[in-house]
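Pasting two entries for a bug report.
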Amino acid sequence: MRLINCPVCQRKVDIALINKHLDTCTEQPESVPPPAAPAPATETAPELTSQPAKSVSSLLTGTKSTKKSSYKYENSQKRTLSDSQSLSSDHEGNTSIEIVEPEPKVRKTDPADELRLLKAQAKLPLAERLRPSSLEDYIGQEHLVGEGGILRGFIQNDRVPSLILWGYPGTGKTTLARLISHATKSRFIELSATSNGISDCKRVFEEARNEYKLTKRHTIVFIDEIHRFNKAQQDIFLPHVEKGTITLVGATTENPSFQLNSALLSRCRVFVLNRLTSDELHKIVSKALLVINKTRKLVHNVPILRFNKEAIGYICNIADGDSRSALNLLELADSHFMTNYSLEPGKHVIEVNAEQLREVLKRTHMVYDRVGDAHYDTISAFHKSIRGSNADAAMYYLGRMLKGGENPLYIARRMIRIASEDVGVLDDSCLPFAIATYQAVQFVGLPEADLALVHCAVKLARAPKSVEIYRGWNELNAKLDSEPEFASASIPLHLRNAPTKLMKEVGYSKGYKYNPDYKDGRVKQEYFPEQIGEMQFLTGQHLGLTPDPDL
């Protein structure tokens, strides 16, 4: 049984019976004896007014209280009243204290100040204006910062370890690092490998050491584009991360396995940020449109924009998981429709569809849809230019893809395929050359790896062409798919492996002629299954024989 003091008679009452007891106290005040030890006058008023909007009964039952509530005391009791209380007497001479709920204070925003702030923010890039300030506003990367996400737990508990954020551009690496700065009690320093050098890092390390000695306050150092530091420069972080002088948070778009020092990488956790989904980009674009329209209406005094579903989908498709790219495209459209629009009389909204956006972005932006038609059309034109030995056309399409933001590793992978499919056995050096190009892109990255891609494309275009293995392989696969007996024919016993005595006794490997034991390695021996007999897929013919009538 849990006892509490009744606020009227000061008796101790079981909490389960407090509601019934309060009804009795307030209905029959004359029967309530005075408290054994009345509290001083200065202490009673605060006790009664600490929660003016709710009675004790409402607190226990969860019901809403009325605006006014009255507690009655005998005349002998004296109380000091606050400004929110007033005295009144009934016909029986009992004094009633009436507690009036104060009006809630509403913070009024000065429209002039709000407009001034909006004008100042209008000069910032849209991506910066929309950067979230809390995890609740962060969109994407649910596997890391969603409910139960491991990184969310680190941030909320202020126990962030040294880590590397690896992901494509526009996936939220920098934003996530800045959210850590908002949530942590540690000192947070942001540097960029593109603008800060090793001397800046050394100064930060010294400040971090002194800060901890004086205040026991830890320091988190965020390095954006950390892969821009070469591996020798990255060594400077090792002792400070290992000793705990700093917590390192790095952001990179390149594979940490190739771009970061292995010793440093072993001391940091790597978190992979995925490309944003179409739904996540849709949320970001819709949120950005609200900001854009507020600015258009209040700052620029121009009609607002209304994008239909297809228009938003078009922007999300071009952005291909890159939120910054999506917002940049939206800003281009916003700038275009500042002056280039026509409205019907009485309308104040500019309706925007996908076709209008396509025309706008063709004039103001190099459109290369990395997941749509442009992606497949351009790589197809690139491949066919190499096949046709036109090195200049191959360079042209390569340039379009790189300028449009195509993944260079995707292009390098395609050239590895071309080396076998179109050049084949006539120039065996092309395949290792294409593989070396892929590795060069991995090790160096853009923009430095662009010439490696050009070098490989030109070599492949100028190499002699052979489709012998390509055609032979396709013919073989067609038979395997269409003729079940061809795919399941029994392998000859003399070609089978015989690792055990039992297999040898059964006849496995019996009669096999080991070619190196014979002159020139030539022997008479069957290699195909008996059921299908000898077949020939490689004819020795590298190209076709049909002349082009247009030549």
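Entry 2 (this is the one that rendered wrong in the viewer):
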Amino acid sequence: MKNPSPLDAVRIVMMNTSHSGNIGSAARAMRVMGIYNLTLVNPKKFPSPEATALASGALDVLDNAVVVDTIEEAIADCDYVFGTSARARHISAPPIPLDEGAMRAKKRLAQNPESKIAIVFGTERTGLTNEELDHCHDLIFIPTENNYNSLNVAAAIQLICYEFRQKLSITEAAPRPVKPDKKQELATTETLEGFYEHLEETLVKIEFLDPEHSTHLMRKLRLLYNRTHLTVEEINILRGILTETQRKLSS
């Protein structure tokens, strides 16, 4: 049985993996860096002999991998979600280099050791979709040669796991801070999704938002709120305002 580690807070999420061998290679890459939590969203084939063979003994990662249907399920209990991309996206927050992302994760865990952090990887061919990026607080990239940034998914996972190991392992000897007040805990993605649904519903009711063309504005609002890392108390305040707005409209 392994000793507890700050790396236990880190979860690797692989979206719609088409080649099962990549799952095995990813498990191997994670295991050698001390990260064990793997979640697979709608993999084409898993479990599979190819995944087992390429895991090279990292069966504890494979055997405990969680398989879900949607990204919402994969990250529901996480309060910090990193997306990964080799290129900038005009609809997302500016990407940050890997070392900065790992440092932000370290700071989060220093504030609250019970935080759960997800790092989401897109498909082998196209990466993360815009809709998947909507769920991410930050987008990280691995600095590479300017004219050649092609990394296979297992290589990318190993580099990212290495950097997170380097940053987070330093916190192992640090004293655990006092558990924050429940209201000051950061909102999980499940809580945020409930807020976004409530916000969109209210904006439609006051006719600020056209329900037929809501995607662009809601994406901008997601970016705004994700950047602030809302607490549970702040979500409750905002939803209270939305509830009162809807009540006034109905009276």
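Dev reply: Rendering is fixed now. As a check, the viewer should reflect this: The chain has two domains: 6-173, 182-250.
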